Amino acid sequence: MPDLSFFSFLASPIFVVLWYIIGLIAAIWVVQDEYLKNTQVQPALKWAWPIIVVFFSVIGLALYLWTCRPPGIENKTGKQEKQAHHEYVSSTFRKVTGSVIHCVGGDGLGIITAMVVARLIGMNFWQEYWFEYVVGFAFGWFIFQYKAMRKMADSPMQALWMGGRAEFFSMITVMSGMGVVMGYVTPLTVGEQPHPATFAFWGFAALGLLMGFIVTYPMNYWLVKIGWKHGMS
């Protein structure tokens, strides 16, 4: 079996506490920034970014600053702010990144919620995997995707359809990335699926979501390319 001892730092109390403290402080700043300065961020992304930043910590904050916050946006208002934001996020890279943030923020919140419940009641790996899939899909579809698609659809039912088809393909890839961490990396590093009351649980949860982010990126590129998702623009 491969030696995955490198990942043991994810179970370290010092690392996990610092990671999430930084993530929480950064997420609070992002919320303030979205509502007071960088106000043209899409409503659904205003929810997704803080979730991502909590779990991704410094990586999430760097992504926000790099892909969603135009330089000097705090000095612009009204039409100038709107135009600056639109121009900044209109590149394919930033559109796709916004699509992935939206996807992983919604799905991830559901997945981690389901993971906590599954570990507390003692589900086996595959029971937990599909439970997380269903809950993550529901969070992503009915909360995040529907909220985004409702602005572009002619009716609530059309918004549900448009959100559901995008969520189906996104969720497959997110859970593929999560599954690698849950079923392979975690047990080979700490020997078992960690309980929610442990530091290892939260360390590997962050890694799982990050892996889901990476794996779903090509899928979201395709979804943006064909017009099923619209990223940050």
UniProtKB/TrEMBL annotation:
Q: Where are the transmembrane segments?
A: 7-31, 47-66, 100-123, 129-148, 168-187, 199-223
Show the GO cellular component annotation of the record. Answer: plasma membrane
Keyword Transmembrane listed? The answer is yes
Q: Name one Pfam family in it.
A: DUF4396
Pinpoint the DUF4396 domain residues.
Answer: 93-229
The protein's superkingdom reads Bacteria
What is this protein's name? Answer: Glyceraldehyde-3-phosphate dehydrogenase
Its organism's taxonomic lineage begins at: Bacteria, Pseudomonadati, Pseudomonadota, Betaproteobacteria, Nitrosomonadales
